[in-house]
Write a structure and sequence with these properties.
heterodimer; A: mainly alpha; 7 helices; 68% helix; B: alpha+beta; 15% strand; disordered N terminus
C-alpha cells in the first residue's frame, strides 16, 4: 500500500523538517539520559548533551537542505504516474464501452510500470553525484621512490610523471 | 589550509560510518556511540556532525534508512549499508590504507 500512498504522503512539505527534528531530538534525549545516569542534574545533563552534539539549528538546517535536494523532480514524476494509474482505474470502473476500458487498462499499465521503475530507481544509487567526490579525498602518488627529489637519471618528480605518461 | 583539513575529515567520517554500519543497521545515536567506543577519545567527533554526513551518504545511495522502534520503545530512524555502500567501503578502505602508507613513508624519510 505504501507503494501508492508514498507519493501522496511526501507532498506534506513539513514532513522532512519534522522527521529531521524528531531524529535529532531522539539523539539529544538519549545523550541527556546518558549524562543523567552519571547523577548529573537534568539541566546540566541537557547542557552537556547540547555541547557534545554541536550547533543543533545549523545541523538541522543542513540536514533538511540535503534531504530536500534533488527530490522535487522525482516527487513530481511519482505523483504524476500515481495519478495516471488512479485515472486508469476510474476509467476502467466507470466505463462499459470496450474501447474506453482498453484506454483505462493502458493508463493503469503505464502508471504502474512507470511507478515501479521510479521505485527501482530509488533503490539504486543516485546518479546525480560523481562516484568519486574529489573534494573528499586526499590523493597522493605512492609509487616507490616517488618521494625522492631526483631519481638515478637525475629527473625531478614532475619530469618522472611526464615521462611516465 | 583549513578547507583541505575539513575535506579530509569529511571523507574520514564517512569511512567511519560505513565501517560502523557494515555489521548491522543502527540509528544515529548508536552509530555515534560505536564510533566513540572505537576511537576512545583519540578522535574528537561531534555527534551532530554525523547527521549531515548520514544524509549525504543516503542521497548518494551508500546507505538506506527506515523508521523503526528503538530499544527504549521510541520511534527512531535506522540506517543500513546498501550494496553500493559496501563497495564504497572497500574502495575507501583501500584508499585510506594507501594514504596512511604514503604519509608513513613521508614521516620515515623526511
Amino acid at each position: 500500500m505504501d507503494f501508492y500512498i508514498g507519493p501522496f504522503r511526501r507532498l506534506d512539505s513539513r514532513r522532512v523538517p519534522r522527521e529531521v527534528e524528531e531524529e535529532l531530538q531522539f539523539h539529544l534525549d538519549l545523550l541527556t539520559e546518558e549524562h543523567c545516569r552519571q547523577n548529573i542534574p537534568w539541566e546540566q545533563a541537557h547542557a552537556e548533551a547540547i555541547k557534545r552534539f554541536g550547533d543543533v539549528e545549523q545541523i538541522r538546517d543542513e540536514c533538511v537542505r540535503i534531504a530536500r535536494r534533488n527530490q522535487s523532480a522525482v516527487l513530481a514524476l511519482k505523483w504524476f504516474f500515481a495519478c495516471v494509474f488512479l485515472f486508469g482505474v476510474l476509467v476502467r470502473v466507470f466505463s462499459t464501452d470496450y474501447h474506453v476500458t482498453r484506454i483505462g487498462d493502458l493508463l493503469m499499465e503505464v502508471g504502474a510500470l512507470a511507478r515501479l521503475l521510479l521505485y527501482l530507481r530509488g533503490k539504486s544509487p543516485s546518479k546525480h553525484f560523481k562516484e568519486d567526490d574529489e573534494s573528499a579525498l586526499l590523493k597522493l602518488d605512492v609509487a616507490p621512490l616517488s618521494l625522492a627529489a631526483y631519481d638515478q637519471r637525475g629527473r625531478t618528480p614532475v619530469e618522472r610523471v611526464i615521462s611516465s605518461k | 589550509m583549513p578547507k583541505a583539513r575539513t575535506d579530509l575529515m569529511q571523507g574520514t567520517l564517512e569511512l567511519l560510518i560505513l565501517k560502523t554500519l557494515a555489521r548491522d543497521s543502527m540509528h544515529g545515536y548508536g552509530i555515534a556511540q560505536r564510533i566513540h567506543e572505537a576511537v576512545d577519545d583519540l578522535l574528537k567527533v561531534e555527534d551532530g556532525s554525523l547527521y549531515p554526513a548520514l544524509y549525504r551518504m543516503e542521497e548518494r545511495g551508500w546507505i538506506a534508512s527506515e523508521w523503526g522502534i528503538s530499544e527504549n520503545n521510541r520511534r527512531a530512524k535506522f540506517y543500513r549499508l546498501t550494496k553500493a555502500g559496501r563497495k564504497r567501503l572497500e574502495g575507501e578502505r583501500a584508499n585510506w590504507e594507501r594514504v596512511s602508507q604514503a604519509i608513513g613513508r613521508i614521516l620515515e624519510t623526511a
